[in-house]
Amino acid sequence: MADSAGHAVVTGGSSGIGRAVVDRLLRRGLGVTVLDAEPMRETPASARDSALRTFLVDVTDEKAVGEALDEAAEQAGAAPTLLVTSHGIRGGYAPALDLDLASCRRVLDVHVLGTLVAARSLVRCMERVPGDPPPGGSIVTVSSTTAYGGWANQADYGVAKAAVRQLTRNLAVEWAPRGIRVNSIAPGHTLTPMVQEMIDQGYDVAATEARTPLGRLCTPDEMAAAIEFLLMDASFSTGVCMPVDGGWTAVGK
Ligand SMILES: NC(=O)c1ccc[n+]([C@@H]2O[C@H](COP(=O)([O-])OP(=O)(O)OC[C@H]3O[C@@H](n4cnc5c(N)ncnc54)[C@H](O)[C@@H]3O)[C@@H](O)[C@H]2O)c1
Q1: Residue 127 domain-assigned?
Q2: pLDDT at residue 253 in the model
Q3: Which domain holds residue 102?
Q4: Ligand 1 pocket: which of 24, 33, 36 to mutate (most atoms <8 Å of CB)?
Q5: Residue 76 lies in a domain
Q6: What is the pLDDT of residues 15-50, one digit of tens each?
Q7: N or C: which end of the chain has fewer CB within 10 A?
């Protein structure tokens, strides 16, 4: 049976911000397809069996992503027209002189090319289904506050996130004639497994909170709310990158 309220794909939907997006979209009545390299630890309580589909794939593997989306479209009875790219890995957080090049390449590959692969696989899958007019769609990518300004120890991750922001603008311009909006969010520190791992390794949360005007970290659900707005409701926005950072990027010093 077709997903009546729509069909969304969430990369990185097994954990953290992506998982919170999955929960919100399911509550909104959408069918959701998760593409992640790792399985979900627990299935969302709110999920009707048929509303959630999960595929174990690496987003940099274009063939696997394309096959998963085709399979999801068949199971759902409708091609997905919505995409959130919330997959990601940590950078080396090391001085540029010390960064291992193979690790740098993987960070750039996962964040930048993984986002491109997911986005163009969605468009290809959508446009394989005949229809006049074409269905149109909406994509939200995940950049970072590290894409704003210059930072030490960010020659891999920060560069990747700035590239995701630029890729979003480029795709927004290129795909507007197809009726597809492409926007991005730039999260500030959000308490997900990725950040919990940093905290466990000695990351100074108190200093981050002190530098953040709102004085705390973001929750995954607050971040998901901003993503849901751009994905579903911001009908005249395309090509924007919205910081969701408690004021972090607004600080002038
Ligand atoms: N948490 C933060 O403070 C923060 C801040 C800025 C940006 N971000 C970005 O938000 C996104 C989500 O991060 P999070 O904090 O929820 O992290 P997370 O580690 O909780 O979730 C990331 C998910 O991506 C998946 N993933 C990683 N590599 C993949 C690949 N090659 N193919 C498929 N899936 C893959 C992981 O398995 C995991 O489920 C990431 O892009 C991250 O860089 C997070």
Answers
A1: yes
A2: 76
A3: 7-189+220-243
A4: 36
A5: yes
A6: 999 999 999 999 999 999 999 999 998 777 666 667
A7: C
Angle between helices 114-128 and 62-76 (to 10 degrees): 40
Has residue 209 been placed in a domain? no
Pocket residue to mutate for ligand 1, from 9, 192, 196, 198, most atoms within 8 A of Cβ: 192
The residue whose C-alpha atom lies closest to atom 16 belonging to ligand 1 is 16
Name the average pLDDT for the chain.
94
pLDDT, tens only, 153-162: 999 999 999 9
Q: For residues 80 and 125, is the Cβ–Cβ distance under 8 A?
A: yes
Q: Has 93 been annotated as catalytic?
A: no
Q: What is the pLDDT of residue 88?
A: 98
Total domains in the fold of the chain: 1
- For residue 208 and ligand 1, the question of a CB distance below 6 A is answered with no
| Residues with Cβ within 8 Å of residue 179, at least 6 apart in sequence | 133, 134, 135, 136, 137
Mean pLDDT over 149-168 rounds to: 97
SS3 of 200-239: the string is HCCCCHHHHHHHCCCCCCECHHHHHHHHHHHHHHCCCCCC
Which amino acid type is present at position 145?
T
The reply to whether 211 falls in a domain is no
Ligand 1 centroid–CA 88 distance in Å is 3
The pLDDT of residue 50 is 72
Strands ordered across the beta sheet of 31-36:
52-56, 31-36, 7-11, 82-85, 137-142, 180-187, 241-244
Q: Using an 8 Å Cβ cutoff, are 41 and 13 in contact? A: no
CATH number at residue 26: 3.40.50.720
